[in-house]
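Zinc transport system permease protein
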Amino acid sequence: MTMIDAIFSYEFLQNAFAAGLIIGVIAPLLGVFIVVRRLSLIADALSHVTLAGIAGSLYLSQSVAAFALLNPLFLGIAASVFGSVLIERLRSLYKHYEELAIPIILSAGIGFGAIFISLAEGFSSDLFGYLFGSVSAVSREDLGIVAGIAVIVFLFISIFFKELFVLSFDDEYAKASGLPAKWIHFLFMIVTALVIAGSMRIVGILLVSSLMTIPVATAMRLSKSFKGTIILSIVFGEISVIAGLVTAFYFDLAPGGTIVVTSIMLLLFVIGFKKLSVSMKKGAVA
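Tokens:
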């Protein structure tokens, strides 16, 4: 059975590819602002907090009957948003050492995640799918959540694009010009938390930050403008997701791994291409 036939035959593949295509847009789109603002490690911190929420939800589903039917994604989203709020609070407490907030929250996420995994008596197939992504585990409910998060992202970017652009390149000027920088950054963190939590079904908690940064790094090697970087980041993100899902389907691999490896291969190809083109130009001048 070919991939196209399987997509038309199985609902879970339809869900996975639809969710993957959405994530391939929103993760690099938000990732451009994250990279430019030098906040790449925040994605890692929030992904580990999301892990704690997912592990906690899986433990509660084993211990409390009322949680058995709850989608773990909801507690993962709640934990990720809560983590983003805590990062902002810590950044305001340590004004001269704002970067301390990231390792503190990251460590807390790993710590609570390890505790809940231990209480849940180790790894389960469900938790493995959340860690590294799963093609077969994406439900209609998961797809609906991802679509809802995408709507929030597009609305946020369209409303605050100019403000985010100014904040990304000149934070001091943005504050001096009267922009509500603190509140915009706070909302940006919450939206980032939502994207990270929503992407984990496809890419996996431990790899989702890669999809937000590696396509952006690839685009920055080719584009000379901000909007061009956004467009190319989305293109590379979509290529990575589609190629990664196809590879995961045919070889029965974790989609998060194949998506990230594909994005890394694209980055290496672009770096090599740029070096080759520079060498050829130098040779032509000589």
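The chain has a mean pLDDT of 87.
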